[in-house]
Specification:
Strand content: 5-15%
Order of helices and strands: HHHHHHHHHEHEEHE
Low-confidence stretches: none
Number of helices: 11
Length: 324
């Protein structure tokens, strides 16, 4: 590790620990543990910011290089912003911030304040990029505009999600409404986009609305590919020797419920009695996966993790208080 980085992380680790008198060996182990956790958190934070940066510039390219110069629209909050920009003199960058702001506030209440801060940074960066970066206009072919505009926009949205934030607040609204209306996230997003495309067809033209649907479909499939699935929930199975620490992290730090399965190791080289183990299972929204990965790495980098897409879910303790 870089000596300067190690010094900074060590100072941060010492601040986290409460002063204790007694066994210096125990204090030293605590400092080493905190240092390792700080290093993991720093590495994951850098990685997530890189993802968000790539997402911002990719989405900016899709908007300025393809959609905006040809008055094309997309679905979601970005589509609403594009639609408003066509009929007003307001900058698209400013519209992206204004239209997304209520959904970011909603995300702070329903997901976490850290998620909201990352989203604000990502959306503001996208607004700056769209307003100031002179992307070249690539083509005037409408089919290419719809396809590649949707691809780069979807790539940007997906990379921002991989970084633990969003640059389009539609999904936050859909997650919130799905808990109120008992509908799936996919159904709510589809309903929102049907309204947007209908307004686009009325105000612009049916042809533009049809191309907008194609843009949305390409962007949606690209997001699927980048974030490995757009189902609203992901079931996570965790096998680790430090299962109790992981359970406490899920319940106390992330505010998530979990289930403990009792199992046995399936492989034994000596053909002796197989050891017992406890398996932790929890369900999260995909926006929380980046945070979970960081926290598990702090506890056990060798943990075996299996993630499965969950199409729908009912009951249990999925609703929780926002993370501090």
């Amino acid at each position: 590790m870089n000596p300067l980085l190690q010094y900074i992380l060590l100072k941060r680790a010492k601040k986290r620990l409460k002063p204790k008198s007694g066994d210096q060996a125990i204090l030293k182990r605590e400092i080493v543990t905190e240092l390792r956790k700080s290093h993991v958190e720093f590495v994951h934070s850098v990685k997530q910011m890189v993802f968000i940066s790539i997402g911002v510039f990719s989405a900016g390219f899709g908007l300025n290089g393809f959609l905006l110069p040809n008055q094309f629209i997309d679905g979601g909050v970005t589509g609403v912003s594009l639609l408003l920009q066509v009929f007003s003199n307001i900058s698209l960058g400013l519209l992206l911030i204004i239209v997304n702001l209520p959904f970011v506030i909603l995300g702070a209440r329903t997901i976490s304040t850290v998620f909201a801060v990352k989203s604000i940074v990502a959306i503001t960066a996208l607004a700056i990029v769209v307003h100031f970066v002179p992307y070249p206009i690539i083509t005037e072919d409408k089919l290419l505009i719809a396809f590649f505009g949707g691809f780069f926009l979807g790539l940007g949205i997906g990379m921002a999600m991989r970084g633990g934030g969003v640059i389009d607040g539609t999904e936050v609204l859909a997650i919130y409404l799905s808990r109120k209306w008992h509908m799936t996230v996919g159904d709510i997003i589809l309903l929102i986009n049907v309204i947007i495309f209908s307004v686009g067809a009325y105000l612009l033209s049916m042809e533009i609305a049809l191309y907008a649907i194609l843009t949305y479909l390409v962007a949606s499939k690209t997001v699927n590919y980048i974030v490995d699935g757009v189902e609203e929930y992901i079931g996570v199975t965790i096998i680790s020797k430090k299962n109790e620490e992981i359970r406490l992290m899920l319940t106390n730090k992330m505010g998530k419920a979990c289930t403990i399965y009792h199992g046995k190791h399936g492989y034994d080289k000596l053909n002796g009695e197989r050891a017992d183990l406890e398996i932790v299972y929890t369900v999260l929204t995909r926006l929380e996966i980046a945070k979970l990965s960081t926290e598990i790495d702090k506890i056990d980098k060798k943990a075996f993790i299996v993630m499965d897409m969950v199409k729908d879910i009912k009951g249990g303790m999925i609703k929780r208080k926002p993370l501090k």
